[in-house]
Amino acid sequence: MEVRLQKLIAGTGLSSRRKAELLIASGRVSVNGKVVTELGTKVDPDRDHVKVDGKHLMSAQPFVYLMLNKPKNVMSTLDDPGGRTTVKDFLRGVSVRVFPVGRLDFDSEGLMLLTNNGELAQALLHPRYHVPKTYLIKVKGALNNEEIAHLERGVRLEDGMTSPAHVKKVRKVEANSWLEITIREGRKHQVKRMLEAIRHPVLKLVRVRMGPISLGNLEPGEFRFLTDREANSLRELVDERRALVERGEELVPTPKRPVRGEGWAKPGRSKKFSGKKEKVA
Ligand code: URA
Predict the structure, then answer these.
(1) 281 domain residue, yes or no
(2) pLDDT band at 160 (very low <50, low <70, confident <90, very high)
(3) What confidence score (pLDDT) does residue 162 get?
(4) Which atom of ligand 1 lies closest to the CA of 193?
(5) Which structural domain range is residue 121 located in?
(6) Which CATH number characterizes residue 150's domain?
(7) Taking the complete model, does pTM exceed 0.90, yes or no?
(8) What is the per-residue DSSP string for the chain?
(9) Is the CB of 190 under 6 A from ligand 1?
(10) Lowest mean pLDDT, pick from 206-215, 216-225, 232-241
């Protein structure tokens, strides 16, 4: 993800932003071997080689990205004044201070990204970047196609209409059912409120995907570092969205599409679902 050169220099703790501007203007900074004197120059801290007075700029701390499968009844914050278990309690052996990218409700489970790259975290959460988040949810009863179309078109909540969502039927379990819902907003308790509004309250909620990152088969309570490829895909997503917003071509949430699939998957037929069957049913 690109940042302004003076911001990168200041971010390493080498100097203040103002001092970094002076360093650049006076020709003491090079990028990939070329002296750069233009203040607005953008660089990618993970790819470009920046030197000040011929010395490599050392990042104050390398960026770290990881994912945790947050278990139920765990706070998605780092501290809890009430003394409840938090996501920090699961990051044994992680010496770098990383911050959760967004929240999950106390009783929700699933994918939480954590990083010390504050700029990337903010961008992933920025409402104008419309990063898709997918949740596997168990709801009371079974939705008919009209109810699914309603969710996909948008539901009126007390803080306004929701933007278009994608909904996939997964499986019926006795009187209840599992769905996968993808939204591009991040309002508080949004998925629960959307389902409440159509009278199918959520009984269980697991976040399974955020942008290009999938939870995969990480067990509840486990974490792992993202691969370089995964971290790059997050940076690329943010770069792409930022460029769109800067060009004024803001991504409009995908328009409604016809409800896909008339029926419910037969038990064991849904590949994605079957791996989680025992744990989530
Ligand atoms: N929507 C909700 O209602 N709860 C969550 O934890 C995440 C999304």
Answers:
(1) no
(2) very high
(3) 96
(4) 3
(5) 65-274
(6) 3.30.2350.10
(7) no
(8) --EEHHHHHHHTTSS-HHHHHHHHHTT-EEETTEE---TT-EE-TTT--EEETTEEPPPSS---EEEEEEPSS-BSSS--TT---BGGGG-TT--S--EESS---TT-EEEEEEES-HHHHHHHH-GGG---EEEEEEEES---HHHHHHHHH--EETTEEPPP-EEEEEEEETTEEEEEEEES---TTHHHHHHHHTT--EEEEEEEEETTEE-TTPPTT-EEEPPHHHHHHHHHHHHHHHHHHHTT-PPPPPPP-PPP-SSPBPTTT-HHHHTTHHHH-
(9) yes
(10) 232-241
